[in-house]
Amino acid sequence: MLTERSARVSAAVKLHRHVGRRRAGKFLAEGPNLVEAASLRGLVRELFVTEPAEQRHAPLLAALAERHDVPVHLVTERAAKALSDTVTPAGLVAVCDVPAIGLEDVLADAPRLIAVAIEIGEPGNAGTVIRIADAMGAAAVILGGHSVDPYNGKCLRASAGSIFSIPVVAEPDADAVLTALRAAGLQVLATTVDGETRLDEAGELLGARTAWLFGPESQGLPVEIANRADHRVRIPMSGGAESLNVAAAAAICLYQSARALAGPKLP
Question: Are 25 and 50 in contact (CB under 8 A)?
């Protein structure tokens, strides 16, 4: 017969799977950095911690207890391993609420810059795009089409906590995303290897409110999506590489837009 603590661990372990996260509306954040970032957003609902981790992260746990009335469960190393999806478990895992935010929410306040990643299946790439968008001052990240779940553990870690600083929306209907972006008054720029506009010659375009579309490195943006953009933009490359990793392309394009929107000097 399962104890209450064992039952809670079993329920939390199910959140490793996308279907479990979708049904529960919750996800797992592992390690002190992600747990603290989630707590600052008020998303943490319960904590699992091993005895060594409790001692190691005592100041963080004290701050969490003061900030929120969150149940803390002491667990064994074996349970901590089951709760972890890393090679070396941190011994500190939080069950968190998935933020209730949709496409209409991120477009409501006339955003100036948005990153839209289409069909991104690699969680590390998705998390890095989120981190870059946060660093460049974008208003939101939209994962369109059949993209990875942003609350996948690898995506969370790759975002380095930025997923808690910038709104992230998963919207499987890429056509609906484009329609909503246009309705919100954003120009849509697509990154393609054969774009008719060079990024270094797109100065006038970059000063407008913009949603950038990025596709996976393997095949790029779907043609039907790229063709619906206002402009297709290519990043000029003088070397031998045929394409850029999606995160690298996002970094270059978002930086250029952020610079144009903020003036010649970023803060």
Answer: no
68 Cα distance to chain centroid = 24
Q: How far apart are CA 46 and CA 24, in angstroms?
A: 14
Q: Encoding tokens for residue 27?
A: 């996800």
Q: Which residue has the tokens 């999506």?
A: 225
Q: Which structure tokens are listed for 203?
A: 């100065």
What's the CA angle centered on 241, arms 237 and 244, to 5 degrees? 75
pTM above the 0.70 mark?
yes
pLDDT digit string (tens) for 86-108? 888 999 999 999 998 999 999 99
Q: How many CB atoms lie within 10 A of CB 72?
A: 14
Structure tokens belonging to residue 58: 């005592």
Per the listing, tokens 């963080």 go with: 60
Report the amino acid identity of residue 191. T
